[in-house]
Design brief:
Blueprint (H helix, E strand, L loop, with lengths): L1 H8 L3 H17 L4 H16 L3 H26 L6 E4 L4 E3 H27 L2 H10 L4 H30 L8 H32 L19 H21 L2
Antiparallel strand pairs: 1-2
C-alpha cells in the first residue's frame, strides 16, 4: 500500500485536476446516482490507502448527511416531476423522481468534494502552481491560486498565535459556548488585518524581485514532471468519461 500511496502522491498535479473534472462530469452525465456512490466508495478505499480515511469520512458525512436530508426533503416531497409515490404520509407524498434527482445532486457534489480533498491532501500547493504555470498559465494567476490555497492555513496559524499570546497573559478562553464566542469575536479583527498586511508585504516582495517583468524566461525551484503513469491515468480517465457519455446517449 505504501508503494501505491507514493505513486499517487507523485502524480502530476494536472493529472489529479483532470481526475476531479472527469469524475464529477461522469457522475453528472450518468442517468442515476449509482455511479456517483460507486465512485465515492472507491474514493473511500483510496483515502484508506493514503491514510486519509478519517478526514475524508468527516468531510463526506459531515457535509453529505445534512445536504442529503435537505435535498431529499425538498425534491422528494415537492418536486413537480414526481409521478411514482414511494411513501404516503397523508399530508405529503415522497416521490421517486424527486428523490433520485436529489441523490444525484448529492452524489455529484460529494464526488467533486471527495476528489478535490484527496488532491489537496496529496499535492503541495507550490507543485500545483508550478504545473499550472508550466502548462501556460499566467504567473499572476498562478500566484492568486497559491495565495488562495494558503490564506486559510495562514489565518489558522495566526489565530493559534493570538490565542496562545492571550492565554499567556491570563485571558481565559475556555468555557461554555457563549464565553467562547465572546472571546473569539475580538480576535477576528487582528486576524483579518494581519492577513491583509501579509498579502501586501508578499506583493511588495514579489515586485522588488521582478515578478511583473515581461519578456524574460522564468525559472522555478519546484520541478514537475509528466511520466508514463500520468499518461496512462489521463487516457484512462478520458476513456472512462467517453464511455459514460456514450452510455448516456444510447
Amino acid at each position: 500500500m505504501e508503494g501505491v500511496s507514493k505513486r499517487i502522491e507523485n502524480l502530476n498535479p494536472l493529472t489529479k485536476l483532470l481526475a476531479i473534472l472527469v469524475f464529477g462530469m461522469a457522475t453528472g452525465f450518468f442517468p442515476n446516482p449509482i455511479l456517483g456512490f460507486v465512485l465515492l466508495f472507491l474514493l473511500m478505499i483510496l483515502a484508506f490507502i493514503l491514510h486519509l480515511l478519517v478526514g475524508f469520512s468527516k468531510m463526506i458525512f459531515g457535509f453529505g448527511v445534512p445536504l442529503t436530508t435537505m435535498l431529499v426533503f425538498i425534491q422528494g416531497f415537492y418536486s413537480p416531476q414526481n409521478n411514482q409515490i414511494l411513501l404516503d404520509f397523508g399530508f405529503a407524498q415522497l416521490g421517486l423522481e424527486g428523490t433520485m434527482y436529489a441523490l444525484k445532486l448529492v452524489s455529484v457534489l460529494l464526488v467533486f468534494m471527495g476528489t478535490f480533498f484527496l488532491m489537496n491532501q496529496t499535492t503541495k500547493t507550490s507543485k500545483l502552481v508550478a504545473a499550472l504555470e508550466k502548462s501556460g498559465l499566467n504567473p499572476k494567476i498562478g500566484y492568486l491560486v497559491l495565495a488562495s490555497f494558503n490564506v486559510v492555513p495562514q489565518m489558522n496559524r495566526r489565530l493559534k498565535e493570538i490565542r496562545e499570546a492571550q492565554e499567556s497573559r491570563g485571558v481565559v478562553l475556555k468555557g461554555n459556548i457563549f464565553h467562547r464566542v465572546k472571546t473569539f469575536v475580538p480576535l477576528i479583527g487582528p486576524i483579518v488585518l494581519s492577513s491583509f498586511t501579509d498579502a501586501q508585504e508578499r506583493g511588495m516582495t514579489l515586485e522588488t524581485r521582478g515578478f511583473a517583468i515581461e519578456g524574460v524566461k522564468r525559472t522555478s525551484l519546484v520541478i514537475t514532471t509528466t511520466d508514463k503513469l500520468d499518461y496512462i491515468v489521463r487516457y484512462s480517465l478520458l476513456l472512462f468519461l467517453l464511455l459514460v457519455i456514450i452510455n448516456n446517449f444510447r
